[in-house]
Amino acid sequence: AHAHGKFAFMHSDGFIMDIYEHLIEIGVDAINSQLFIMPIEEIGQRFKGRITFWGELDRQHILPFGTPEDVGEAVNRVRRALWDDRGGVIGQAEFNKGYPLENIRAFFEAWWGPPET
């Protein structure tokens, strides 16, 4: 992909923190993984600035059952742990039928607003 001016994106479900280093070594530019089943802060300490994280907010607990405040804090947790000018985070989440509209609104407001420290 890189030889043709393209980026390599990868998606995987599951706890894949142990293979992040290998994904970086083989040239993956961005990874979409289930961040909330892994230690997000440790992922940030080890890998931010070396790969772009393709969002992924917890769609099994926080988005459907959390409060808008829970959603905002989850977004800010991802931003604090993973954002870096050399790589960063692509804000992304899946919304399913029945998710509270307030939580969907909170997701977008948190991503588009200034990061909380």
Automatic annotation (TrEMBL):
In terms of InterPro entries, this protein maps to: UROD/MetE-like_sf (IPR038071)
Name listed for the protein in its UniProt record:
Uroporphyrinogen decarboxylase (URO-D) domain-containing protein
Q: What is the species listed in this Swiss-Prot or TrEMBL entry?
A: marine sediment metagenome
